[in-house]
Design a protein that fits this description.
The structure holds two protein chains of two kinds. By secondary structure, chain A is an alpha/beta fold. Chain A has two domains: about 325 residues, no CATH class; about 55 residues, no CATH class. In chain A, about 20% of the residues lie in helices and about 40% in strands. Chain A is globular. The relative contact order of chain A is 0.09. In chain B, the strands form three sheets. Chain B has a ten-stranded mixed sheet. Chain B is of the alpha/beta class. Chain B is built from twelve helices and 24 strands. In chain B, helix 2 packs antiparallel against helix 3. Classes of the chains: A alpha/beta, B alpha/beta. Chains A and B meet through strand 19 and strand 20 of A and strand 22, strand 23 and strand 24 of B. Strand 20 of chain A pairs antiparallel with strand 24 of chain B.
């Protein structure tokens, strides 16, 4: 008995013990099975260490050593979410919060919490958990222990009129959440989605987000993910996207706040004539650490993918980019472009960039570029010689550096919001 | 008339090479060798050390390296697939039978001379042609060194590694393992424990080496791992250009080659290190071929420069990342590479540039060509340390694909830790444009010639960096390597 008490738990066991008390009995049987399978898979998985290549630049020790609280928390009902839309689902610590959410139904579009969809949706039943990576520990934690999330389903040919917002709020003391989203666009439909992550608290929180995204033939989806939590927040995010022929998909990841952010974006191009965009804009300060990993599988011929990630690293922050383009042998006439541009503003900031190409087809055009540098003193001089102050000159240049990414945001209100953050952040830059 | 005939002849020659295109250096010289029993253990290391009559400190260094190696595991991270060598099933020492010290070429084994002639590097030819001194290595033991006296006058030491251990132990001891420590990686540790021979070169202060130094390596004995150790030290204000070229005979079993090359450029020195690697790449079906797992690194002190140039066409599996540690302020590192993989060859190669000193500069130009079922990867690291202010790196890696079963991959690591440095990296992957081929054909070239022309143009940036005599050889090598890979 004594022995049992003194046995030291591994980090993983300790971390997973958080979930011991949760009751998921309200889930339908088929979903509970998925949870059990994921729990089983977790037994064979370990947290990445400094020796795990995929996590080379991101240490998660501090993240997994914290102890967290699970459960909903109260959030002021007049909290300003800055969401001018007809459809918005709000989740606090991963739990759906009805009093903060509002929806206005559009014909042919289902937008509801995942917990509700589990009761109603056949689509969900058929495709849930089909894109998750069974060897990725955080995906499996999410599958096993997710609380709730958003479900968005567009029927064939339906073009959404409203922008769909999914807001995740961390609140209370040391909260931990596992939000799980499911987005399905049927043939020829189109939609714009905004995912917003914000904090209503101080101090640590951990969000382990996972989204499964299906874009069928000729469908068109744009997702904007805005990460602006407090600077002690941790977030790991896995977005799994499956695209069919002639579809279009765009993901804009905007990282403004958060202590440690890790975004894994995986695209599978399963048809011909697909077009994909992956964009990332990170404005880092303090001790922030933002790590973007993207992987795109070109599985069929004649597809085009664009990737543009930009980071401005100030103070003692760290920006990581690892993008991989994988061109399968039959994916001839692939056109893939990957670009990563970074600006380092101080000597304490670091940039790690690893743009990768893995190509098994010969008739392709694949290229990538990565640059890391600082503001062009000559350009500053040019502006100053025309009577523009030093601060203003720098702000102009930083703005110019980011402008092509800001323009990628297809939701006007969000674009303005991001632009105002940029203006505010760099108007007084040294 | 005479000239025309000559041209005709060389054309025919080329044609024959192209049509046969079998590995043309595939022959075995029959020299009885003095072999150590198979396997690796402390006894074997002691055996090698005793055989070479080495001082105590070197034996200790070897034993320490062996201990380190025993604790390491073979790296798996490279983008390569090959059956792992059985390290206990290799001979770690083999030397051509010791003859008495040789004074002139007449005393060299005629069979050896013939080998050199087949390789096109006959020693007497070399001896007469000024400008190139050859230290020929056959299965790890230096047989003949030329031009030694001439170099000696300038104070330049250019000799086999074992000779250097005997005659200049203080220099060897001072620099050995300072750039590539035994603990660096699995193969470096293995090499440090069992290296048999190699080349040593020391250029004294302020001396500009008047000729290109070159070594020809040749793996000769079946089932013998080749563990070369090269150490080049350029003292302050000196300059040296070092050439290394390789060919190996045809074998069915894979042969392991794990060399270590260390370059040290002291203040204001410059080292230019050029390699042509043409080891047996295995048969068309992917059988046999050399495993080439090499650690090459240079250390640059203040205002110095190290430049690596390589043309890699051989080996079944290549694992090689020549790098520079830019330790001194204002030092410069360069890497120019053409790597060709055809049939079932695999290469995982690239460069490492570590910027430590201020105002350091590095350039990486890597050209990969894949044909057949080959896989060619570029893996590079550019690291700018926090205190390496105002540093600059430019990296360009281009891949050319020929045929739809090959692969070309790029894995660059870029790490920047300060705000005054600039790092650029760009990579492209494409195939030879139909329009380019069409253009050439329209002007009367056949497809083969057109492709050779285009490939040569593609590699020109790198070939231009090679010393003249190598550039010609390299160009021919590229043509032969890629023959028949388009269709």
């Amino acid at each position: 008995m004594m022995l049992e008490a003194t046995v030291k738990m591994s980090n993983k066991e300790k971390f997973l013990s958080h979930y011991g008390m949760i009751d998921f009995s309200h889930d339908k049987e088929s979903f509970v099975e998925k949870r059990r399978a994921a729990e089983k898979a977790l037994k064979g998985l370990e947290f990445p260490t400094s020796k795990t290549e995929y996590w080379k630049y991101t240490r998660i020790n501090k993240l997994i050593r914290e102890s967290y609280q699970l459960g909903p928390a109260d959030v002021d009902s007049d909290i300003d979410l800055s969401v001018p839309t007809k459809n918005c689902l709000v989740f606090v610590n991963g739990y759906y919060t009805d009093e903060l959410s509002w929806t206005e139904a559009e014909a042919g579009i289902d937008f509801m919490p995942l917990s509700e969809a589990k009761e109603k949706s056949d689509k969900l039943k058929g495709s849930f958990d089909s894109l998750t990576k069974k060897e990725e520990i955080f995906s499996m934690i999410n599958t096993a222990y997710h609380q709730d999330g958003a479900y968005l389903h567009l029927k064939k040919g339906k073009a959404a009129e409203s922008v769909y917002y999914i807001v995740n709020i961390s609140a209370g003391n040391q909260p931990m959440s596992n939000p799980r989203n499911f987005i399905y666009l049927e043939e020829g439909s189109s939609a714009k989605v905004v995912m917003k992550h914000i904090s209503a608290n101080e101090g640590n929180s951990f969000t382990n987000q996972l989204s499964e995204i299906f874009v069928e033939k000729n469908a068109n989806l744009e997702i904007n993910k805005l990460q602006s939590e407090n600077d002690d927040a941790y977030q790991i995010s896995n977005d799994e996207v499956s695209q069919e022929g002639s579809s279009q998909f765009k993901m804009n990841t905007i990282s403004l706040g958060g202590g440690l952010l890790r975004n894994n974006l995986n695209l599978d191009l399963n048809g011909e004539h697909i077009e994909s965009w992956m964009n990332g804009l990170s404005l880092l300060h303090g001790k922030q650490h933002v790590d973007h990993h993207t992987l795109i599988h070109h599985r069929e011929p004649n597809c085009v993918s664009h990737e543009l990630y930009k980071t401005i690293a100030d103070d003692a922050s760290t920006g990581v980019f690892n993008g991989k383009v994988f061109v399968h042998p039959i994916a001839q006439k692939t056109n893939a472009y990957q670009s990563n541009a970074n600006m380092v503003l101080t000597d304490d900031a670091s940039i790690y960039s690893k743009p990768e190409l893995e190509i098994y087809a010969d008739d392709v055009k694949c290229s990538h570029g990565s640059t890391t540098g600082q503001m062009d003193e000559e350009a500053i001089f040019y502006l100053r010689s025309r009577g523009i102050g030093k601060k203003k000159a720098r702000a102009v240049l930083l703005n110019a550096f980011l402008t092509d990414l800001v323009e990628q945001i297809g939701v006007e209100h969000l674009r303005e919001e991001v632009q105002s953050v940029i203006d505010k952040k760099y108007s007084g830059v040294k | 008339m005479e000239n025309q005939k000559k041209n005709m002849a060389s054309e025919e020659e080329l044609l024959e090479e192209i049509t046969s295109s079998e590995y043309k250096y595939g022959f075995v010289t029959n020299i009885e060798s003095d072999k150590a029993p198979k396997g690796l253990s402390e006894e074997i290391v002691r055996f090698i050390s005793a055989k070479k009559n080495e001082p105590e400190w070197l034996l200790e260094y070897r034993l320490k390296s062996l201990k380190i190696w025993e604790q390491m595991t073979e790296p798996e991270w490279a983008h390569l697939k090959y059956p792992k060598p059985d390290f206990q099933d290799l001979h770690y020492y083999s030397a051509p039978k010791k003859k008495k010290e040789l004074e002139s070429l007449d005393e060299v084994d005629p069979e050896l001379l013939e080998t050199f002639e087949k390789l096109g590097i006959s020693l007497d030819e070399q001896k007469r042609l000024t400008g190139v001194a050859v230290d020929a290595v056959i299965d790890s033991v230096s047989v003949k060194t030329t031009f030694k006296e001439k170099l000696g006058e300038l104070g330049i030491i250019f000799c086999s590694f074992s000779e250097a251990v005997q005659e200049h132990p203080e220099l060897v001891r001072k620099y050995l393992g300072t750039v590539v420590p035994a603990s660096d990686n699995f193969y470096a540790a293995l090499n440090s424990a069992v290296f048999t021979d190699g080349s040593f070169c020391y250029i004294p202060k302020g001396v500009r080496c008047p000729m290109e130094l070159s070594t020809y390596f040749r793996i000769n004995e079946a089932n013998t791992g080749q563990f070369e150790r090269t150490l080049v030290v350029a003292d302050e204000d000196s300059y040296v250009s070092y050439l290394e070229g390789c060919t190996a005979p045809m074998r069915d079993e894979n042969q392991l080659h794990a060399a270590v090359v260390e370059l040290i450029a002291l203040d204001r020195a410059e080292i230019k290190y050029s390699t042509i690697q043409n080891w047996y790449p295995g048969s068309k079906e992917g059988k046999g071929g050399i495993y080439n797992f090499v650690t090459k690194r240079g250390l640059c002190m203040e205002d110095s420069k190290i430049s690596w140039t390589q043309v890699e066409t051989g080996s079944a599996v290549t694992w090689k990342y020549p790098g520079c540690v830019l330790k001194g302020d204002r030092s410069i590192g360069e890497f120019y590479s053409v790597a060709v993989t055809a049939n079932h060859q695999q290469a995982d190669t690239g460069s490492k540039m570590l910027h430590v000193g201020k105002n350091t500069k590095s350039t990486i130009i890597s050209k990969g060509i894949s044909a057949g079922q080959a896989n060619n990867s570029y893996r590079g690291l550019v690291k700018i340390n926090k205190h390496a202010t105002n540093s600059r790196n430019f990296t360009q890696c281009d891949s050319l694909l020929m045929g739809n079963k090959c692969g070309a991959h790029t894995f660059p690591y870029i790490e920047v830790d300060n705000s005054s440095s600039q790092v650029e990296h760009e990579a492209t992957t494409s195939k030879i444009g139909e329009d380019q081929i069409f253009y050439c054909k329209q002007r009367g070239m056949d497809e083969e010639t057109a492709i050779n022309l285009i490939v040569n143009g593609y590699c020109k940036e790198v070939l231009n960096q090679l010393p003249m005599e190598f550039a010609v050889e390299a160009q021919k090598l590229l043509e032969i390597s890629l023959e028949g890979s388009v269709g």
